Sequence to fold (383 residues):
Amino acid sequence: MYIATMRDSDGDLFEACKTYSLTVPKDVPVKQFWSLTIYDCDTWAFIYSPQMLPGLSSRYIDKMVKNADGGVTLYFGPRAPKGLEANWIPTSGKKPYAMFRRCSSFRNTREITMQRKSTLALACVASVLLLGALSAPTARAADDADLAKQLQNPIAALISVPIKLDWDTNIGPEDANRSTYVIQPVIPFSLNDKVNVISRTITPVYVDAESPVAGGRDVDGMGDILQSFFFSPKAPTASGWVWGAGPVLSLPTGDDGLTSDKFSIGPTAVALKQEAGWTYGGLINHLWSVSGDDDAEDVSGTFLQPFLSYTLKSRTTFGINTESSYDWEDEEGTVLINLTVSQLVRFGKQPVQFQLGYRYYADSPNDVQDWGLRFSATLLFPK
Fold:
């Protein structure tokens, strides 16, 4: 259950310059935990700060200062009350929006939700398999099977332009929806006889991103561009591993509310092996901010993506991967699990791979995200 407000006990709107308090009694009737999360009233995003997370919960109650009756008083505002820093949520000069959550287990609702998720996932798989069954066999079947296999390699010497749509739903107390288009061209260059350089550019565009809290503002626009360069040997190792490493850069190109306002740089690496139709490996990067808006929060974030897939001779690929990110500044992480099915087809001479997937958020800040779907079309330009 969620309780959200933008007003104090007198009915006045919260102000950015004031500190407010909420007293939580000792025995709150919850089966799992309670939490208080503070959002920016103008952008509905979390209010991050160098000091701590944008919320407090009963999971960390042992670190808080308790009242005489065993309850706790939580504070949010620009300054912490003296001696009560452990009970304080900083607002960093933002106009706050408070949301109190009581998390309990409701078995019937969960069972119904899981049934709906299973139905959607099966529909996605059936659609892609049908597309593969309707694509006419060609003399290039063997070559296309190899293309489908190469697509599972993030640093293959193959020009590809994936266009993805990630649709997430059940976000926050308002069960908001968010659509994110991602354009991700991958272009290899031959550095010399032994080494390729693979350019990988990720450009997100947010469309119809609804506010997850009542009274918040919907947003849309372009996010920050992530640019990676992998220096990769053209030949695999003696044991069959393919690898690449290089720099990764985050460019503050995003619109207001969708950018870190920081230029960040760091290392990235990928390693994988392909055998008997299987592809398995992982990708990792880390970013540190080095310049940008002095008032913006510093960036120190790690991204890890292990992946596993199997490609059939029919050019159908089944895959699973996780996208885990961790913000070292705010000590908060997200774990996203992707289940996908892909099919390579041809329109005339143009090879295209279509993919449908199910996205499940195993963990996210304050558990505000739940699940979603992914659709992508990848244009291939083999030499």
